[in-house]
Prior knowledge:
Elements: E1 6-11, H1 15-18, E2 23-28, E3 34-39, E4 42-46, E5 57-60, H2 63-66, H3 71-85, H4 97-108, H5 117-126, E6 130-132
Amino acid sequence: MAPSRSIVWAPIPCLSSLFPMIGHFGITDSVGVIHDFGGDFYVNRSETHTIFGPPTLYTQLSEEYWSVISDEEWDSALSMTITKYQKKRYNFFINNCHHFVAAVLKTLSSGEKKYTILSLIRAFRLSKAVRQIPDRNIPLTAHSDALGCEDT
Length: 152
């Protein structure tokens, strides 16, 4: 299981091999269960896998940054976003897994912060807090902390 309150990343077969910066995002609930937008009207829920397999990287969102949000509030925001996305069609360009994760974060911040697909990708790929999930081996260089991620 992935760490709780984390953004996870899984490689997309073939595509991530050609373009390592491209992958599939999901977000975990307060106990570490992964949720990811998997297609028209479908949000995947799994303890171990995204729709493209097990995640290889994650960044756990900072306790300092998100500490005012209880586990119940976290899971409620995730549940509200899941309900919305179970009514949405998937579109690779305008409604995908990245948009789903950004929508959860926006709900958690009560709309105060603007999360976009580009800010999410940039923050995840450049975060000092990105970690490899054990037994997965994809190298990643890290530099910043734009999502309020832990800096351990």
